[in-house]
Design brief:
Length: about 625
């Protein structure tokens, strides 16, 4: 297909949520990338698929739900606000909230399984329905569950039936309202539910599907839609986990489940049986290679299947940005999840398209980087709105500084904001301590932690920062939005060669005349030598300062600039240029002071290099002579 350039207007990476992406995006056929979590869920090895917002939970879920996505029948359950309210409100006297919620979920599973069995028996097992299946059919008819009902209506019926112990169990030979006086509401409901579940289990047994058809797969997605702060939400999700485990076990081989849970929700759960679920968990993880693969598949879907990797990352996109290969540049600056990748890629496309360019340029990518960073900072706060509502307020601790923050500096900055934060979030004072905010900021991937020669950002199994770990980095994704351009906020050394106000002395004349002017030249040269010497000592000190490498490099570059400026000025002076040397040296001294202050602010107050910066600054002021003019320098 030759050149890809000129196709920017057709380039499209799809929609950034699986639901719309399926409807009017690209998530069809080859665009879905069967990742490890998908395979584990497909094969039934894992039933809890956990991932951050945008990591591709719904994509896996929808893929499993599509015909051919997995072999066998599936039922997709996605609670909405109304059903969430209903479940949160559901309670039964005499049992815990978790148990009550698990019972309503078990009811939903049982009714769906019954409906499936009736159809399935007819379609897959011939005309005559076995006895147990006919019983289920009568039950469905009696309880109005025959037709296509939404989850909400089904729940409402379950809630009423369980709370007043009047599920329509005639079909199973049980009369309604058989409650024994004296038993709890929960016990009666449990008994009724048991009758229904026995009936369902009996049908599975009688049909003897095991080994003949794959089990019925329950898919539950979008629980984040019904997640709010508070114990009832907690019980809603815990109840679901318990019910899913129960159903899988009880209908032996007839049913399996795949629950899709946002990691912040799953990690916030805290219940007795949690350890029983560990072997069911799989966390969705993405590498840069995986995301590159997603990007290429999507670019192909919009530009044509002949598009190669090389054409995408060197024809459609510029080969590199700031000297970094473009794919690396992009995926290093986004959190590793397909939603972010798609957003970033589409942002690059749209900047280029708006400009009317035939392909995406380096400047387009740089422009998109800024915009993307702002979006993601905002999204991060929204993602954790329920669990950490104070997150957005913490960003202020990082604005307009350097992207490396030492633990002590973070603690100082936090102290300055502590009162205001505690006043704004009185319910979270426990989470608003220096250690807790480090955990939260790390957990959200806002901060990474230095480990050996790497900086590690949250993801999967990494342990949170330990007390002995001191160096934190703001994730590159969020740096542009917070204006964190360098490792520390070192202003560049600004110098302008100020011409001396004394005019009229020709350059050459200064050097040959052995007068005051000549002495002034000697003094100027000595001052420059002092300055260059100070720079050299500082650079040597820096070499053994143990500062984080990125900060060391930035500081090195800045001192290097001061030194180069001194060199240039000295040469100019030697050639007879009239310069305000005092002002120049004092500016450098002042700069060293600022640099020392900035390093101190970042937690390096007691490093020798910081102390030396202040020392050298003082010595330079003294050398200039308290800032007095050149005539003082006469011996
Ligand atoms: N395995 C995958 N292959 C291709 N695209 C994917 C894959 N997983 C997710 N995506 C895409 O990434 C975006 C976010 O995924 P989504 O499933 O909506 O995230 P979640 O439900 O976890 O918030 C969607 O556009 C989706 O189509
Ligand atoms: Mg989703």
């Amino acid at each position: 297909m030759g050149q890809q350039v000129g196709l920017v207007s057709q380039l499209f990476f799809g929609r950034d949520d699986a639901e719309t992406d399926l409807k009017d995006g690209l998530l069809r056929g080859a665009v879905f990338r069967p990742n490890y979590a998908y395979k584990a869920a497909l094969q039934g090895r894992k039933s809890l698929i956990i991932g951050r917002k945008g990591s591709g939970k719904s994509a896996i879920c929808r893929q499993l739900a599509t015909l051919g996505g997995h072999s066998g029948s599936s039922i997709l359950i996605t609670p909405d606000d109304a059903t969430g309210d209903e479940i949160r409100r559901f309670e039964l006297q005499g049992v815990t909230a978790d148990t009550a919620k698990s019972m309503i979920w078990r009811y939903v599973f049982a009714v769906h399984a019954a409906r499936h069995l009736v159809t399935h028996a007819r379609v897959a097992h011939g005309r005559r329905l076995p006895e147990s299946v006919r019983t289920l059919r009568s039950f469905l008819k009696d309880s109005g569950e025959q037709g296509e009902a939404g989850l909400y209506d089904r729940l409402r019926r379950g809630v009423r039936g369980l709370q007043s112990a009047n599920l329509s169990l005639k079909a199973f030979g049980v009369e309604a309202a058989f409650g024994v006086n004296g038993t709890s509401e929960g016990a009666r409901a449990g008994h009724q539910l048991g009758v229904l579940e026995d009936g369902v289990a009996a049908s599975f047994r009688e049909l003897d599907c095991e080994g003949k058809h794959p089990p019925l797969l329950f898919l539950v997605d979008q629980l984040e839609e019904v997640w709010t702060a508070g114990p009832e939400s907690h019980a809603l999700v815990t109840g679901l986990l318990l019910a899913a485990k129960y159903a899988t076990g009880y209908y032996h081989g007839g049913v399996r489940t795949a629950l899709f849970l946002r990691s912040d929700i799953y990690d916030a759960l805290n219940f007795g049986d949690a350890d029983k679920f560990h072997s069911d968990e799989i966390r969705i993880e993405w590498t840069a290679e995986g995301l590159e693969d997603v990007a290429l598949a999507r670019a192909k879907a919009s530009l044509g299947s002949g598009l190669t990797r090389e054409q995408l990352w060197g024809g459609v996109f510029p080969a590199s940005v700031y000297g970094e290969p473009v794919a690396e540049y992009l995926f290093r600056r986004s959190l590793p999840r397909p939603r972010d990748a798609i957003q970033f890629l589409n942002a690059c496309q749209s900047v280029a398209d708006e400009r009317g360019g035939p392909s995406i340029t380096e400047a387009d990518v740089v422009g998109a980087t800024e915009q993307f960073s702002r979006w993601k900072l905002d999204d991060l706060a929204k993602e954790y709105m329920v669990n950490h509502p104070f997150l957005r307020s913490l960003f202020a601790l990082f604005e307009n500084t350097g992207y490396i923050v030492m633990r002590s500096a973070l603690a100082d900055r936090f102290e300055a904001h502590r009162e205001a934060l505690h006043r704004a979030f009185p319910a979270y004072t426990e989470s608003l301590t220096p250690q807790s905010i480090i955990d939260v900021l790390y957990g959200t991937s806002f901060l990474g932690v230095r480990r050996g020669s790497d900086v590690v950002y949250a993801g999967g199994t990494h342990t949170p920062p330990l007390p002995g770990e001191h160096e934190f980095h703001v994730h590159p994704c969020f740096r542009p939005a917070l204006n964190l351009l360098a490792s520390v906020d070192v202003p560049a050394f600004q110098y302008t060669l100020t011409r001396n106000s004394i005019v009229g002395h020709g350059g050459l004349l200064n050097i040959i005349s052995g007068s005051d002017v000549g002495l002034a030249v000697d003094r100027d040269r000595r001052l420059f030598d002092d300055l260059v010497g100070a720079c050299e000592r500082l650079l040597r000190q820096l070499g053994r300062s143990g500062l984080p490498a990125a900060i060391g490099n930035d500081v090195h570059a800045q001192i290097g600039r001061v030194m180069a400026a001194a060199g240039t000025a000295r040469r100019g002076r030697d050639e007879g240029e009239e310069l305000d040397v005092d002002a120049h040296v004092l500016a450098a001294s002042n700069y060293f002071d600022n640099l020392a202050a900035e390093l101190a602010r970042n937690g390096f107050a007691d490093r020798y290099v910081t102390l030396r910066l202040a020392d050298e600054a003082r010595v330079l002021v003294r050398a200039v002579g308290g800032g007095t003019g050149r005539s003082d320098s006469s011996p």
